[in-house]
Every structure is written in structure tokens, then in C-alpha cells.
């Protein structure tokens, strides 16, 4: 049976940004969704994302000197760039976005104005936000993530990103990392890193058909997902739901570590993982000490800012 499609509304009539077709079962709702059962994993608030810094008055003044049609085209080109990256679940690097979109107008030094207006237009038309890496992650993850941005809607998050099977797997992996991971001495204490061995042991405990060891090149097939755990881990890493790192070790372990990626922080958040763990364990309320730790971390971040 063919999948229903809907069209995201065009930005404005005769403007540069074109409507984009997306499949209902990936991002949208169809007419029969009233009878669908959706698994929601993100009832608790995710991590806070800082907004863009407002453009300076002199930047706004320079932008106002451009012909209206030129400025409008730049804003819509940036908006279309955001949409395409968001639909592909790709991260955005601010510098590359400016390079790709601004072209010869980059020298006018008005990029912050174009980014600001495109961001507001994205929110007004589609309800999507441009989210940045949460503050608590800086210093805990590789420097390459610092300038990355993500397109999404924090009010309609993870359960719209994958099918429910991949949702469950990702939440399980995040739960294992958060609860069994350890703080590494070479990073700040905000994130826990979990070894590949611990993750695969946990997977094997749940499903004995999955090997307790990673198989290079794949092969740990997961029933019902039509894929193997190695391929899905690679996909989660590519989309910044997880971060993979390899460190030098003195034993026969792989040295491969995983931690929460920025997209997981923005779409799920540490607090949700605490509640999710309590639900899995059949507890009515999560461990209050774990919630206090998150509150203490938030207070420390506010003081640093």
C-alpha cells in the first residue's frame, strides 16, 4: 500500500523556498492517526538550548541597506537550507551554513541578521527551532561538536523521529549509558561514558540472540528491526544521538566508548532518562538523589554563565 504524503507549506507565493514532500509515517500525521498507538519516551523536559545572540544594531543597519529582494532571497535560501538539513536529520555547522548560503554577500557581514530572520521564519511557519548544543555538554565532548546546530521541535520530539522499535532501542542504549557509564578523567563530570563491552553485555542480557561482543562489519541482527545493532549504533552516531570515542587501553578491551550525543540531550534529556529508568524498574518515583544531581548541575551551569 503506498505511503501517504503531505506537502509542507511553501514559505510565500513565488518565493525561493519550495514546498518539500515528506512521508507521513516519518514526520507527519495522516488522517487515520486517531487510532494509532504512539510510544512516547519524552514526557520530561529535555535540556535547554540557547537561542542565537541577537544581531547588533550595526549589522541590522547594514542589512537594511541591501535591496529588499536580495535580503529576502538570502533569508529564504537559509530557511530552505535549514529545512533540508532538518528533514535529513543532519547537523548544521554555522560557518558552513553561512559559506553555503551567503555567497558573495558574506563580505557584507550581515550573516547574523540572515540567520536570525530565517530562524524566526522557520519557527513561525513550521514550528521548528534551531537548537544548539546544551551548555552542560561543552568540555565533555569533542570540540568538533561545539558549533553544531540541530533542527527540531522540542514539543514533538523523539517519538516522531523513528519508528517505535528504533525509539525503544535508542532509549535502552541511552539508559544503559547513563546508568552504567562512568565519568572519564579527561572530560568534565557532566557526561558518563560507557564501554562497548558493557553495552553489548546489556543487550545480550535482554536478548540472548544478540552476541555479548560487537561484530565488526555487523551481524548482530535485531528481530523486528530489519537491521543489526552495529549498523544502528553507527546511524545513531552519525545523527549525533550518540557520540563514539576510542581511547588507548592497556587490556584486551576495544577501547570504544559511547556517551549521549547533543541530539539526545535536546530531544530526550537526562531527566527523562532518570524517569525512564524508574519506569523500567517498576518504581513509582525515580531516585531523588539522581534528580538532585541534575538540579545541582543546572545551578552550577547558571553560575558559570
How would you characterize the overall build of this protein?
- Helix content is 41%, strand content 11%.
- The chain has 305 residues and is of the alpha+beta class.
- The chain has 2 domains: 5-22 and 45-156, Arc Repressor Mutant, subunit A; 160-268, Orthogonal Bundle (Arc Repressor Mutant, subunit A), CATH 1.10.10.1210.
- The strands form 4 sheets. It has a 3-stranded antiparallel beta sheet. It has a 3-stranded antiparallel beta sheet with strand order 6-10-9.
- A hairpin with a 4-residue loop joins strand 7 and strand 8 (227-228).
- Helix 2 crosses helix 3, helix 2 (68-87) crosses helix 4 (111-126) and helix 5 crosses helix 9.
- Residues 284-305 are annotated as: Disordered.
Amino acid at each position: 500500500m503506498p505511503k501517504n504524503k503531505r506537502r509542507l507549506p511553501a514559505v510565500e507565493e513565488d518565493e525561493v523556498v519550495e514546498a518539500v514532500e515528506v512521508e507521513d509515517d516519518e514526520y507527519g500525521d495522516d488522517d487515520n492517526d486517531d487510532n494509532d498507538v504512539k510510544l512516547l519516551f519524552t514526557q520530561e523536559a529535555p535540556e535547554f538550548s540557547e537561542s542565537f545572540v541577537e544581531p547588533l544594531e550595526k549589522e541590522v543597519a547594514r542589512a537594511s541597506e541591501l535591496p529588499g529582494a536580495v535580503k529576502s532571497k538570502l533569508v529564504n535560501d537559509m530557511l530552505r537550507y535549514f529545512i533540508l538539513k532538518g528533514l535529513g536529520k543532519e547537523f548544521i555547522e554555522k560557518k558552513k551554513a553561512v559559506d553555503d548560503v551567503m555567497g558573495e554577500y558574506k563580505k557584507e557581514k550581515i550573516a547574523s541578521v540572515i540567520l536570525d530572520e530565517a530562524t524566526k521564519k522557520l519557527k513561525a511557519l513550521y514550528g521548528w527551532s534551531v537548537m544548539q548544543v546544551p551548555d552542560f555538554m561543552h568540555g565533555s565532548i569533542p570540540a568538533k561538536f561545539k558549533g553544531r546546530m540541530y533542527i527540531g521541535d522540542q514539543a514533538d520530539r523523539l517519538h516522531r523521529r523513528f519508528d517505535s522499535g528504533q525509539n525503544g532501542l535508542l532509549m535502552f542504549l541511552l539508559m544503559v549509558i547513563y546508568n552504567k557509564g562512568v565519568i572519564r578523567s579527561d572530560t568534565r563530570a557532566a557526561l558518563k561514558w560507557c564501554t562497548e563491552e558493557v553495552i553489548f553485555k546489556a543487550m545480550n542480557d535482554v536478548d540472548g540472540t544478540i552476541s555479548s561482543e560487537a561484530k565488526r562489519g555487523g551481524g548482530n541482527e535485531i528481530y523486528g528491526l530489519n537491521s543489526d545493532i552495529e549498523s544502528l549504533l553507527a546511524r545513531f552516531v552519525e545523527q549525533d544521538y550518540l557520540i563514539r570515542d576510542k581511547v588507548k587501553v592497556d587490556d584486551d578491551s576495544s577501547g570504544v566508548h559511547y556517551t549521549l550525543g547533543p541530539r539526545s540531550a535536546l530531544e530526550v534529556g537526562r531527566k527523562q532518562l532518570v524517569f525512564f529508568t524508574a519506569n523500567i524498574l517498576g518504581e513509582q518515583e525515580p531516585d531523588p538523589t539522581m534528580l538532585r544531581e541534575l538540579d545541582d548541575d543546572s545551578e552550577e551551569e547558571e553560575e558559570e554563565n
